[in-house]
Design brief:
The protein is elongated, with a radius of gyration of 17 Å. The two termini are 20 Å apart. The protein has helices spanning 3-12, 16-28, 35-42, 46-58, 77-88, 100-105; strands spanning 33-34, 62-67, 70-75, 118-120, 123-125. Helices cover 49% and strands 16% of the residues. The strands form two sheets. A three-stranded antiparallel beta sheet has the order 1-3-2. It has a two-stranded antiparallel ribbon with strand order 4-5. The chain has 126 residues and is of the alpha+beta class. It has six helices and five strands; from the N terminus they run ααβααββααββ. A hairpin with a 2-residue loop joins β4 and β5.
Length: 126
């Protein structure tokens, strides 16, 4: 991931509504949700939701698929995991094993965190 992509993702989440949409889509997993479900769950007007989904689509954070007369949205979870990796790849100056204490206190499932490898701008090794 590069800085421009990371910035687009952050910009696309710079709204409470978009964060709520993202969390619902993550919860829905691979099934995703149709736009009407999202609007109903969030108690917002469909045109308002459409505006926010467009921004998320532009950043690649969600995908959409036509199903008859409905649009089904899915969160791009691999992109978010890549973003997490981008943000933490240089943890402790390329020695992420030093970050074990911080990882242990994070309110995040260990499987979501990047693997403990030696990473820097040149790449990672086990």
């Amino acid at each position: 991931m590069n800085k421009d992509t990371a910035t687009k993702v952050f910009e696309s989440l710079s709204s409470g509504i978009r964060l709520d949409v993202w969390r619902l889509l993550v919860k829905a997993g691979l099934e995703g949700m149709v736009a009407g479900q999202l609007a109903s769950e969030l108690d917002i007007a469909p045109n308002t939701l459409s505006f926010h989904l467009k921004a998320m689509l532009h950043a690649g954070l969600v995908s959409v698929e036509q199903e008859g007369r409905f649009l089904r949205y899915r969160g791009n979870i691999p992109l978010m995991l890549e973003l997490i990796g981008y943000l933490t790849e240089e943890c402790c100056s390329g020695h992420p094993e030093q970050c074990l204490d911080m990882r242990g206190t994070a309110n995040c499932a260990p499987d979501v965190l990047p693997p403990l490898t030696s990473c820097n701008k040149e790449g990672c090794s086990s």
